[in-house]
């Protein structure tokens, strides 16, 4: 039996981001540029996340600039 391909999209992103917001999970957002920002995601939509930063200003970060998000 041939192996099936993984789907191009799982549609799990909204559920995971809602989980992070609801539980106020501390995250590290790693950007494509190499920058890293830590804090709690307060809001998200299709284009960006709003991060309440641990140190420094609160940020609106476009999703296309994010390499990955890691729970701290």
What is the molecular shape?
elongated
Stretches where pLDDT falls below 50 for ≥5 residues?
Answer: none
Biggest sheet features: 5 strands, antiparallel
Sheet/helix structural class: mainly beta
Rg estimate, integer Å: 14 Å
CATH top-level class: Mainly Beta
Quickly give the CATH architecture: Roll
Query: How large is the count of helical segments?
Result: 1
According to DSSP, the number of beta strands is: 5
Domains (count): 1
- What percent of residues are in strands? 35-45%
- Series of secondary-structure elements, N-terminal to C-terminal: HEEEEE
Description:
The longest helix has 10 residues, at 13-22. This protein has a five-stranded antiparallel sheet with strand order 4-3-2-1-5. The chain has one domain (13-71): SH3 type barrels (Roll). The protein starts with 12 loop residues before the first helix and ends with a strand. Helices cover 14% and strands 43% of the residues. The model has no long low-confidence stretch (mean pLDDT 93). Strand 2 (36-44) and strand 3 (48-53) form a beta hairpin. The protein has one helix and five strands. The protein has 72 residues and is mainly beta.
């Amino acid at each position: 039996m041939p192996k099936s391909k993984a789907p191009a999209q799982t549609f799990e992103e909204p559920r995971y981001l809602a989980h992070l917001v609801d539980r106020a999970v501390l995250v590290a957002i790693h950007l494509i540029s190499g920058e890293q920002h830590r804090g709690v995601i307060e809001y998200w939509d299709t284009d960006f996340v709003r991060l309440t930063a641990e140190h420094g200003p609160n940020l609106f970060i476009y999703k296309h600039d994010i390499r990955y998000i890691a729970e701290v």
